[in-house]
């Protein structure tokens, strides 16, 4: 049924089924089936890591299939996940399957996809049966090591001395087509070798050759394939707004490059088919020409290819020399190494410490920090830290705080760790960010301009506990600023 409730003709169903696919094997077999009954399709995903935003590419096609009246099976390939170089231990598989099902249902519901003809199946529900196991042995008597390794080259982790499990992987995926009783399998174009393997060998077992639908591979944010194992290449479905903003700002988006552009590909395969019914609007300030809407993806791609999406910046009326507002960059923060020479409880607040801090060159300040109950006082005494020194002084329960101790912080479970300057640092040394070494800090960060409030959401530790702003490392002349153990955590 169409989204407005009217029935599609076989020709309209075929067009919807094929939309945005890169390749179809066995296209001539589709129309005879959909003239008689609903097409049966399966899409499999190995439960090896957390689903990320690129899953919406596959889900947008699943949406097309369901709108075209197809019966869709989503296979949680738990056995495949274990066989793929044992990325997923058995103890995690059951929990991962529940998480995958919840995430995928939520994704489909968020884009208004009917779920009546959708079902979920676990691989181990049928792959451990006597019949399936015998077919694995039958297939192994026909397939050479060369063919098995070649078939899995794009999807199975490749090592110099592969495990036998990885060689079994393509055969299991081929047999799934028969045991799920489907007409077609859907996957990325990276699975083409497995699909042609299935077309070659299933008939040798007396089974029907299936149709194969292939999505193009959407580049990740770094320009290569979006991968669960490469953190910066993907947007995780559980990422915070600040994390998404940071990753988008770091994304590879070379002007004019339309072939290795994950942002453009996501627009084509997800946003336009699902949400951009009225077009895609690029929001721009007036000095850049104002907002512009592209009704069709081809218009958006052409504008990006010709590098005309952003107009040259023009000065506002009455703005001398075309000067613009000051950029919100981290070089405006006065960050310095400081030494805590004294620490005591706040007399009127159980959650606060009052610290005396040596910031070098005779600059000694009082700093109030909300660390009581989170960091022992003895851990702060005589330690070096990173201090933000140009915030407007603020009274905290009657005591004026004239700087802020920078800490990595997580809410669940609650944990806070002060940042650590490199070994050998001394009070007063400047703390800066890569790519932003030059520039003079503001004398004082004016509250109305909210400079700190705009910079702080992009301050985080990375997976190595190194402090960063939008991927640019925080450091001193002696090396990187770190924290003890909090990875990928906000810095406040």
UniProtKB/TrEMBL annotation:
GO terms under cellular component: cytoplasm; nucleus
Localization of this protein: Cytoplasm; Nucleus
The species this protein belongs to is Mytilus edulis (Blue mussel)
Q: Where are the transmembrane segments?
A: none
Q: Which UniProt keywords apply?
A: Aminoacyl-tRNA synthetase, ATP-binding, Cytoplasm, Ligase, Nucleotide-binding, Nucleus, Protein biosynthesis, RNA-binding, tRNA-binding
Q: Extract the PROSITE patterns matched here.
A: TRBD (PS50886)
Which GO molecular function entries does the Swiss-Prot or TrEMBL record give? Answer: ATP binding; tRNA binding; tyrosine-tRNA ligase activity
- Chief site of localization: cytoplasm
Gene3D superfamilies, per this entry?
HUPs, Nucleic acid-binding proteins, Tyrosyl-Transfer RNA Synthetase
Signal peptide stretch: none
Q: Which domain of life is it from?
A: Eukaryota
Q: What is the E.C. number?
A: 6.1.1.1
Q: Which GO terms describe its biological process?
A: tyrosyl-tRNA aminoacylation
What PANTHER family has UniProt attached to this entry? Answer: TRNA-AMINOACYLATION COFACTOR ARC1 FAMILY MEMBER, TYROSINE--TRNA LIGASE, CYTOPLASMIC
Q: Which Pfam families match?
A: tRNA-synt_1b, tRNA_bind
The entry assigns this protein to a family as follows: Belongs to the class-I aminoacyl-tRNA synthetase family.
Its protein name is Tyrosine--tRNA ligase
Residue span, TRNA-binding domain: 329-432
């Amino acid at each position: 049924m169409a989204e407005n409730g009217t029935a599609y003709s076989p020709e309209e169903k075929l067009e919807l089924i094929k939309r945005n696919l890169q390749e179809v094997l066995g296209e001539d077999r589709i129309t005879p089936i959909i003239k008689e009954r609903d097409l049966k399709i399966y899409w499999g995903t190995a439960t090896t890591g957390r689903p990320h935003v690129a899953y919406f590419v596959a889900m947008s096609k699943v949406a097309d299939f369901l709108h075209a009246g197809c019966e869709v099976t989503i296979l949680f390939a738990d056995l495949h996940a274990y066989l793929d170089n044992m990325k997923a231990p058995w103890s995690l598989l059951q929990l991962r399957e529940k998480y995958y099902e919840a995430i995928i249902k939520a994704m489909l519901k968020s884009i208004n996809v009917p779920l009546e003809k959708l079902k979920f199946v676990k691989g181990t529900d049928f792959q451990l049966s006597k019949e399936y196991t015998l077919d694995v042995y039958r297939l192994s008597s026909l397939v050479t090591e060369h063919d098995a390794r070649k078939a899995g080259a794009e999807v199975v982790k490749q090592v110099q001395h592969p495990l036998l499990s990885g060689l079994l992987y393509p055969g299991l995926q081929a047999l799934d087509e028969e045991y799920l009783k489907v007409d077609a399998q859907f996957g990325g174009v990276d699975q083409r070798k497995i699909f042609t393997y299935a077309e070659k060998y299933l008939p040798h077992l007396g089974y029907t050759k299936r149709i194969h639908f292939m999505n193009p591979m959407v580049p990740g944010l770094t320009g290569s394939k979006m991968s669960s194992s490469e953190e910066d290449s993907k947007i995780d479905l559980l990422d915070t707004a600040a994390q998404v903003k940071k990753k988008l700002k770091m994304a590879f988006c070379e002007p004019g490059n339309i072939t290795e552009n994950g942002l453009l590909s996501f627009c084509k395969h997800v946003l336009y088919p699902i949400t951009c019914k009225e077009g895609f609007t690029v929001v721009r300030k007036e000095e850049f020409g104002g907002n512009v809407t592209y009704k069709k993806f081809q218009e958006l791609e052409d504008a990006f290819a010709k590098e005309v999406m952003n107009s040259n910046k023009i000065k506002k009326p009455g703005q001398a020399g075309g000067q613009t507002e000051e950029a919100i960059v981290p070089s405006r923060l006065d960050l310095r190494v400081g030494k805590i020479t004294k620490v005591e409880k706040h007399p009127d607040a159980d959650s606060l410490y009052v610290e005396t801090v040596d910031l070098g060159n005779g600059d000694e300040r009082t700093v109030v920090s909300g660390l009581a109950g989170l960091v022992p006082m003895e851990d702060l005494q005589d330690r070096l830290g990173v201090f933000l020194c140009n915030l407007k002084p603020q009274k905290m329960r009657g005591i004026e705080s004239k700087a802020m101790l920078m800490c990595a912080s997580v809410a669940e479970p609650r944990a806070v760790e002060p940042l650590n300057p490199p070994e050998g640092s001394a009070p007063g040394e400047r703390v800066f960010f890569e790519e932003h070494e030059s520039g003079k800090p503001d004398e004082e960060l004016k509250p109305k301009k909210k400079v700190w409030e705009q910079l702080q959401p992009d301050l985080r530790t990375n997976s190595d506990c190194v402090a960063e702003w939008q991927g640019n490392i925080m450091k001193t002349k002696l090396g990187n600023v770190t924290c003890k153990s909090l990875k990928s955590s906000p810095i406040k």
